Amino acid sequence: MLGTLLRLEELKETLILSSTNLNRDRITRATSRTNEISLEEIFNDKIVKFIDEVISNIKARFESNALKFLDCFRIFDVSEATNEQEYGIQEINTIRQQYPDDFNDELVAEWKVFRKYLFVQKQQQKSAILTQRQQCINLVKNGMTRDMYPQLSLAVEIFLCAPISTATVERDFSTMNRILTDLRNRLTTEHLEQLMRISIEGPSDLDDDLKDLIINNINDRLHFFLLRTIMNDLYAYVKTI
């Protein structure tokens, strides 16, 4: 998390240094004049203030102890990997102490092997390919790597699941309110969950195959409804004979 804060600070400095002066013509009723607008002033007034607010909110979201704990996962950053024997040991021990019921001495042993892999990546100049987060995701998704480093993979899962904000939860509640209207108040929990998953995780555009499937399903239901209506009318007619 400290790495994120540092990158935001670097982004702010980059925006300020790369700012140039922008000339814009401004025409009034009385006269025409050229006003010089400094992009640096725009950045300081808008963008830099926004970045500062993001930084302050992230700091407020996490306590100092939580920030220090999440910063332990910077050891997965390939650009910072070294061949020193003590590299990452203190951070791994901090993670193990934070979750004593989930990790044991095997976590340190797995890290000693995995850090050699990170250092080889750095020597081969692959740091631009896998970032810290991508490295963690790859460790979790790769089945063979996950089997080789089970405890290290579990530690990475904890890091990747850290809730930085509540925005996702708030969007989920908005989706639920949008789906569960007064006319749909009889939806079951299972059905509501399925509709929310489609709305949140589904594709923005439907492909032709899925459209055809939906249309065919609707047509089948319409045919069934019409057939049932005809049968009911026929039965009612027969009863009157």
From TrEMBL:
Taxonomy, superkingdom:
Eukaryota
Single GO term (MF): protein dimerization activity
InterPro entries registered for this protein in UniProt: HATC_C_dom, RNaseH-like_sf
Q: Which residues form the HAT C-terminal dimerisation domain?
A: 147-197
Under the heading SUPFAM superfamilies, the entry gives: Ribonuclease H-like
Q: Signal peptide: which range, if any? A: none
Q: Tell me the protein's name.
A: HAT C-terminal dimerisation domain-containing protein
